[in-house]
């Protein structure tokens, strides 16, 4: 362990808890499977170790594995460092590109969401046709049985690499990945196109919905108009996609609808926050609990909006207004 600690830089042994997370578990599993299969294939079938080239190839495979694990563990335990003073909150962070999606890369991200399903559809077609053509002469369906003639693989013309059971399994697995990616990423592309054509993010749609509820609840008879929807889907589309590839504007000030201004949405948000403060109920935490282990063990009377239930209690005293809450007497 001492040698490991001297090679991989981390402050204390407790940093190893970072490995107990689905991200590192999946990443290390992929590294282990790919490395092990590459080494096994190279030693058994590709390039024997009794040759000079086979030995060099084997050493290179081991070297790749060591360098990958070394840099992976250093990235995990050393971390990104500390943010500078005045650092602003991130935009919409996407774990799949490991970056934020915002003003400069929204068009590229949306094109990726379009091209990925198209490429997967093409790949899925190739997988299906490959399995069909390779199995066509092997499989015969009877009334009550299915027969597989493996001698068909030895007929001319034979492929350079025989399409055996492992190749079929790999193609079938890849087909599942392609179809799953097409559905998942395709749905995300549809969502992004709705956002672009309305020029309205998901959070902004939520703000607009709350604005309508607030106006209806208080009967203020005011009309809220979303300022960034230019009224035309084509005009909204051109705000993201341009012939130059660069989005219009500077990302700070945006084209707005007639009758609105740059702070129309901000004013509505302030109204909603003020309304939320009026209707809010204060609670105080009575127990330090992070919820990482068995949160269902925290039973007791349920407090709306809080889980687990025993970690908070209703405040009887408002420190801001220096007044008692719910008619309770303050103990001196």
Automatic annotation (TrEMBL):
InterPro entries: Palmitoyltrfase_DHHC, PFA4/ZDH16/20/ERF2-like. It is a multi-pass membrane protein. GO terms for molecular function: protein-cysteine S-palmitoyltransferase activity. Its EC number is 2.3.1.225. One of its GO terms (cellular component) is membrane. Residues 90-207 form the Palmitoyltransferase DHHC domain. It comes from the Eukaryota. Keywords: Acyltransferase, Membrane, Transferase, Transmembrane, Transmembrane helix. The keyword Membrane applies. The keyword Transport does not apply. It is found in: Membrane. It catalyses: L-cysteinyl-[protein] + hexadecanoyl-CoA = S-hexadecanoyl-L-cysteinyl-[protein] + CoA. It is an enzyme of class 2 (transferase). The chain crosses the membrane at residues 25-47, 53-73, 111-132, 167-191. The DHHC domain is required for palmitoyltransferase activity. Belongs to the DHHC palmitoyltransferase family. This is Palmitoyltransferase. It comes from Ophiophagus hannah (King cobra). The lineage of its organism: Eukaryota, Metazoa, Chordata, Craniata, Vertebrata.
